[in-house]
Task: inverse folding
């Protein structure tokens, strides 16, 4: 086969606007697996948040979670993790205090917030399917977070992004999967870099990989693989670097590409 692996972002890509997997998409992915292909998930979600969809597809491959900050085996064991620690986490807590912008922290698959009943927590709970754990960020037992996530209106997050890039130049990677999310990982941590490590361990060349995405957090991944596919609902920045643009996530965009590729002898 020309392509041995398919890597899927979740929200806005694998999942439609109802947070469901299209039946036709699932069918085409199953066909790909039946002829020896491997299907991987690479998402900004936590492992616990992605797991129900992983099970629906019947996957048995490692997953990339937290935008590349964690890799988890098919058995649920952590293979790699690149958390932010100490001073960086305390910096983001101070920023949240000063700006009033909602902050999510993540420790050992727990989603930590200081205000579990505000609108930002409710929005994230609806998307992720998780329940928040209330915590006092001034008195955490340990100061680390697999990634950090700010939730607010895009205008506020644009200003915050610029401030963080000035304050922490070269220390963090800043991205977004949605206009109202600002997601921050350790320097050098993104889906693309982690995918390189994972594919090497899986014995698959990056040229043999197809990746689908829609967000700014998919940029490095889409540019890294042999065939980078942007969904029709993608950020324009992602469409600009993708090899092809497919239909949107409510129109079986993944299934359309997979069906066409599966019909070709060279696959």
Result:
């Amino acid at each position: 086969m020309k392509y041995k692996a398919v890597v899927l972002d979740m929200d806005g890509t694998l999942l439609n606007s109802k947070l469901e997997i299209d039946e036709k998409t699932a069918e085409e992915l199953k066909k790909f697996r039946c002829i020896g292909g491997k299907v991987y998930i690479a998402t900004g979600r936590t492992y616990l948040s992605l797991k129900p969809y992983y099970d629906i597809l019947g996957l048995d491959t490692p997953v990339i979670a937290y935008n590349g900050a964690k890799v988890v085996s098919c058995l649920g064991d952590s293979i790699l993790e690149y958390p932010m620690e100490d001073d960086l986490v305390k910096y983001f807590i101070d920023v949240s205090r000063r700006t009033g912008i909602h902050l999510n922290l993540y420790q050992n698959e727990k989603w930590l917030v200081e205000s579990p009943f505000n609108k930002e927590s409710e929005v994230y709970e609806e998307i992720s399917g998780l329940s928040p754990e209330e915590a006092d960020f001034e008195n955490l037992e340990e100061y680390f977070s697999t990634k950090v996530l700010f939730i607010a209106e895009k205008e506020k997050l644009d200003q915050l992004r610029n401030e963080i890039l000035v304050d922490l130049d070269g220390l963090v990677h800043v991205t977004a999967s949605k206009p109202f999310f600002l997601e921050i990982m350790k320097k050098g941590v993104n889906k693309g870099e982690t995918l390189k490590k994972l594919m090497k361990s899986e014995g698959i060349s990056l040229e043999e990989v197809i990746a689908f995405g829609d967000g700014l957090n998919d940029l490095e991944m889409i540019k890294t693989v042999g065939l980078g596919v942007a969904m029709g609902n993608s950020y324009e920045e992602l469409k600009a670097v993708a090899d092809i643009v497919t239909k949107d996530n409510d129109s079986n965009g993944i299934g359309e590409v997979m069906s066409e590729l599966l019909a070709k002898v060279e696959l």
